[in-house]
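Posting here for the record, re: DLL.
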Amino acid sequence: MIYDVDLETLPREDLEALQLSRLKSLVGRVHANVGFYRQKFDEMGVKPSDIRSLSDLKLLPFTEKQDLRNHYPFGLFAVPKENVVRIHASSGTTGKSTVVGYTHRDVRNWARLMARCFVASGASALDIIHNAYGYGLFTGGLGAHYGAEELGAIIVPVSGGGTKRQVMLLKDFGPTVICSTPSYALVLHEAALEAGVRIKDLPLRIGIFGAEPWTEEMRRDIEEKMGITAIDIYGLSEIMGPGVGIECCVAQKGLHIMEDHFLVEIIDPDTLEVLPPGEVGELVITTLTKEAQPLIRYRTRDITKLDITPCRCGRTFARVHRMMGRSDDMLIIRGVNVFPSQIESILLETEGVAPHYLLVVKREGNLDTLEVQVEVDEKLFSDEIKNLQRTELKIVKNIKDYLGVTAQVKLVEPRSIQRSEGKAKRILDLRKQA
Ligand code: DLL
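Prediction output follows.
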């Protein structure tokens, strides 16, 4: 099923015509109303009238997270404050948070896009949706909430935390869809088992997971343990929140970008050149319809690649590969670039190892070292020492063979790695404290 069938299946030519007219209007609006962009355009010698085709996008300046911070809190609004009806903010691990404003129409568009996402995941108005994304300044909770209401489904606004209670609600209300981070889904699964509840036996059938990187191996693990279809959803507060892109349940291969609202490019993060489809680089997004705080060529720092081949589901929107990592999370260990997701894939392929891990990065002299702490399951934990050692060596070898990096591996007790109610913390970077 497709929610906005006319738009989501627009022939590419018509889609591009729509994008171009929206891009022209956007450029005019930001030039007229946002001092930051007017100044940038002037510095680069670009005028709104220079944008005549979609390929002229490359004439426009990039926007970075730091630009949002520099204009904290409301300096990038393109409308008077009285037209803004909602504010969200991302916490950010360093520095001030980034703030995003929405007009009434922005909030409505977002709800429609999230409704599209629910339908793409296989959900409908008949579903009960358990929403464990945090409500508040984080966009996950309210984003999914309004989308579910727009769709006409029943939304259970649980928010994050209170894990035991969540398990009770999963059992009592019998939701058919759950929204959470993938790591929290595993926490719920674990807590359910402790409470004697098998999620597999409940009516739950779809999980809409995002807000943090996860891997294909993690998907299989969750699908198998919980007996559901696990769908990857992408978004970021600066651009809107959840719903910028989602996988369809038909193919589960790449996330369709809502291209009538967002223009995407993949760039080489070093040279800033635009890369062709299929090449891995940084995702850059231009918001075509946002009124309160439109952004031009926003550098997400998320690493992925573009797939423009037609999808079996019938949607004509291009897809991006599941996020491979963030450029700022990339570890350079003795000259080798490693993304946490690559380590996750190796861990989850190893028998006896649980999907809970922490990467500890230290600097010794001028060299970075990587310690992989990973939990083992109860069975392996109570096994003979030599089996534990064998597993440890196997992980060390696989990391070396596949990634070319020497890591220390430390197997730790079940449940000893801290659980998170929202985004999991996978990296402990001790270099920054040194
Ligand atoms: O995490 C919005 C969201 C909420 C998306 C719920 C999906 C579901 P921020 O807190 O601003 O917004 O964080 C955005 O999270 O740049 C990515 O690095 C990461 N991220 C989001 N979704 C995915 C995903 C929300 N599916 C940042 N896979 C983004 C990998 C993701 N990383």
